[in-house]
Amino acid sequence: MSRQAMINATSTRAIQNSATPTPPKMAIGDMGQAANKDALATLNEAINELKALAVQPFLKRAIEALNREDFVGGGKWAVKALERDEKNGVGWYLLAMARERAGDFPNSIKAYEVALQLLPDHAEVSNDLGRLAYRMGMHEQAEKLFCHYVDHAPERPEGVNNLATVVRDRGRPDEAIELLKQALGINPEAHMLWNTPGTIMIERSELETAQIFFTEATRLAPAFGKARYNLSQVKLGLGDPAGALEDCDEAMKRVITADDREMMRLARSSFQLAMSRLGEGWDDYEARLSPQFADVTNFFIDRPRWSPGDDVAGKTLLVVGEQGLGDEILFANVLPDVIEKLGPEGKLRIAVEPRLVSLFQRSFPEAEVTWHTTHVWATRPLRAAPNTDHATADLWTPMGSLMREFRRSLEAFPDHKGYLKPDPKRVAHWRRVLKTAPAGPKVGLLWKSATNKDGRQRYFSPFSQWAPVLKTPGISFINLQYGDCSAELAQAREEFGVDIWTPPGIDLKKDLDDVAALCAAMDLVLGFANASFNLAASSGAPVWLISTPGSWPRLGTDHYPWYPQAKVFVTPSYGDWDGVMAMMGAALADFAGGAASPA
Asked: If we measure between CA atoms, which residue out of 263, 420, 444, 454 comes closest to residue 330?
């Protein structure tokens, strides 16, 4: 790769940004930041000792630009230095930091790698490269780099802190806690060493303990915005979204980086939505589109972006599904409103996950439904809609952005019986098949997510705590859970004496149109809000949802505005499953006494 290419942002007008299917992190650590004042001061001292006087002025200009947070300019000055001495490790290091802060992560990694080769004794390079690798999800490589940094600078608390963070995220939280305990014994005044164990406690749903750690981190460093932000997440988990919003706003007043600001803005959208402040919440939700996120998905669509208030009557609008599969289904709630606004002369094109195409085409016959594809482009996901003619579309938008116009208040949510339309012949088929299941009302079960990214499993109870529900007499439990669930099915038989019946002849992960029909044939579907739950609810099936405090999709209500038929059971706090399971078990017993079998 040429040096000129190294400084060019690898984007075109056709590349526009959206977010990956992950919510804002419930708590964030402090791994430091490239091109901070201390690091630049150290490099400035090193430059004074360079014998290559010809490059000194350019390197100093690069540092001056980075201190002003002019990251593009800093990168250009670093390149000018490298044009005179391409073996200058400080120049590559400055270029790496500049490209990272400018959002060009792939080229930043390349520059860091060259700098590490040229400056093997400059341990901070391995720390910066490790932090960027971590940011891009390369956790194995990050751990090795942080170990290298700790070996060379054992007295620096940031090394142990960063190592503990990646060890935590690689599924070894106890090892991370031990690393932090030892480091705190040496550096008890290091605020980051108090913040990081708090992030582990919050993922374990030990919110009160997490609050102690974050409060101490804030006391030690009042300007430390991340700890104040983490306190906001604790308050949300304790059911106080107003307090969470106050803390988040305070955190954003601190000195924070651009990517942290966008992440906090995205979290703030959740707080506002949880307080029924929908307009402000959806406006802040646009932060998910920020290129500051290292794993942001890019859209390859060379058409103008739709904005709220645009006159779309008679025009062709391309809507592209985003986030996870469940979000594509959830946000489809708005598509009937969009069709109405386009009018009889307008045309809606919808690009969704390939497994949803047939179901969406039946549900929205006025629209043209196709699939989207996602590929890796310069280490980032790139989404396209290859089977539709972009040139004839007047506007395009990610599906979630439509909320800014069509769902700015609770009153804007329609009272519907489901907006997705399963195949009626397959519904009839599944009603016949369900008669061969054990006797009793047919109740579909959903108990886990297929991913644990960003600690998502904290929103789902351990299967062992389903006992009060599964032991309800008179119920015919039907397995709707996609993925490998053989262990849970065996546990239900051995510990609870319950056979959860698995429907024959269907792939619960791939055959989503048929899953919708199966759900519509049920007497009830209950569980957590995964993709299949959204599929059942949007198809009009009776649903019961287990939710957690401050869950934003409830939009500050005691119900689920997206699905009017949903009955919601809310835990008093994260990880407190016993009461809600007992409550659901009692309600299910009442249901068993009065429910009829499928027609």
From this structure: 420
**Nearest partner of 347 among 363, 330, 364, judged by Cα:** 364
- Per-residue pLDDT at 380: 76
Q: Which two tokens stand for residue 589?
A: 């017993």
Give the pLDDT confidence of 107-164 residue by residue, as tens digits: 888 887 888 888 877 777 788 777 777 877 778 888 988 898 899 888 889 999 999 9
Same domain, 395 and 431: no
Residue 263 in any domain: the answer is: no
Say which residue the tokens 């029909």 belong to.
517
pLDDT given for residue 221 in this prediction: 92
**CA–CA distances in Å: residue 45 to residues 39, 41, 42, 59, 90:** 10, 6, 5, 11, 11
Q: What residues pair up with 525 in beta bridges, in sequence order?
A: 444, 543
Domain endpoint, select from 412, 433, 448: 412
| Number of domains composing the chain | 2
Asked whether 501 and 467 are in contact (CB, 8 A), the reply is: no
Q: Please give the pLDDT value at position 18.
A: 34
pLDDT of residue 34: 55
Close Cβ partners of 134 (under 8 Å, ≥ 6 residues apart): 31, 142, 162, 165, 166, 169
Could you give the CA distance from residue 138 to residue 260 in angstroms, rounded to a whole number? Answer: 19
Q: d(Cα 134, Cα 143) in Å, to the nearest integer?
A: 8
120, 151 in Cβ contact below 8 A? no
Instruction: Provide the domain limits for residue 497.
Output: 424-594
Q: Are residues 449 and 533 both part of a single domain?
A: yes
Task: Report which residue type is found at 402.
Answer: L
pLDDT, position 576:
82
Whether residues 451 and 588 share a domain: the answer is yes
Taking the model in full, what pTM does it have?
0.78
Confidence (pLDDT) at 36: 59
Q: Do 373 and 433 share a domain, yes or no?
A: no
Residues 396, 483, single domain; the answer is no
Phi, psi of 178 (to 5 degrees): -65, -40
Q: What is the CATH number of the domain that holds 576?
A: 3.40.50.2000
- Pair 369, 453 in one domain: no
Handedness of CA 453, 458, 460, 466 (dihedral sign): positive
Tokens linked to 364: 């929205």
**Which residue ranges of the chain lie beneath pLDDT 70?**
1-53, 255, 378-379, 450-459, 595-599
Is 479 found in the same domain as 340?
no
Element (H, E) at 515: helix 512-520
Q: Are residues 575 and 489 in the same domain?
A: yes
In three-state secondary structure terms, 300 is strand
Q: Which pLDDT value is given to residue 30? A: 61
